[in-house]
Amino acid sequence: QVHLQESGPGLVKPSETLSLTCVVSPDSISGFFWNWIRQPAGKGLEWIGHIDPVGNTDYHPSLESRVTMSLDTSKNQFSLDLMSVTVADTAVYFCARGPVWFDFWGQGILVTVSS
Amino acid sequence: HSALTQPPSASGSPGQSVTISCTGSSSYTSTYKYVSWFQHHPGKAPKLIIYEVNHRFFGVPDRFSGSMSGNTAFLTVSGLQAEDEADYYCSSYEGPKTVMFGGGTRLTVL
Question: B36 contacts in A (CB within 8 Å)?
Fold first, then answer.
């Protein structure tokens, strides 16, 4: 069983950068695609993007101008940076493994954008 | 890039069968057949139940099945049980290089 755990600040100010990390255990992060997915309150799931085993990324078209994902194989983790956030970015953020289907997920972390 | 359309709600009595649809508006859905289904109990991590249209993920009861016709995928839950009450989401490769989710279907067990 693969375990994923999100971490990061629960409160971010408007116009600042939301930064989250997902630590994977016990399996190695190498060789897989890793995703970020979010769910605003009362709404559905939204795929943010993924990073492949060699660090190439693909992002949701509506977010790609503000999103950066990175991989740290030495720490077995991957990260999300979402720039210039607004209240519309308030959501539960999940990390998940997979190319186009997501077999293991983190529990999710609530990030609120507010001044 | 296209969206996936699901009905907002579905319901059934214990023991009955319920089918939830997921319609893609592009040819990617039917061409690549990378449709997945997830069960989500609010406050918990979503769980993969079906991948690649009709493959059950490990440990998923055979009461759950997936199928596809044209651009529409279907999730059928047979022998409904109380614990099946949850939100169900489909997802698909909707290319290029993009994954989309449906809006979700709230399944109520009456």
Answer: 100-102
User: pLDDT by residue (tens digit) across B41-99?
Assistant: 988 999 999 999 999 999 999 999 999 998 899 999 999 999 999 999 999 987 777 88
CB B79 within 8 Å of CB B63: yes
Cβ of residue B1 closer than 8 Å to a chain A Cβ: yes
Query: Which residue among B32, B52, B98 places its CB closest to the CB of A60?
Result: B98
Helix (H) / strand (E) containing A79:
strand A77-82
**8 Å CB contact of A101 and B102:** no
Q: Which chain B residue has its CA at the smallest distance from A100's CA? A: B93
Mean pLDDT (whole number) for A8-31? 95
- Helix ranges restricted to H, B1-110: 27-32
Structure tokens at B89: 């989401």
Beta pairing partners, A100: none
DSSP one-letter code for B102: B
B46 to A106: CB separation less than 8 angstroms, yes or no: no
How far is B81 from B97, CA to CA, in rounded Å? 37
Residue indicated by tokens 């720490």 = A75
Residue type, B74: F
| CA-based nearest distance B89→chain A, Å | 8
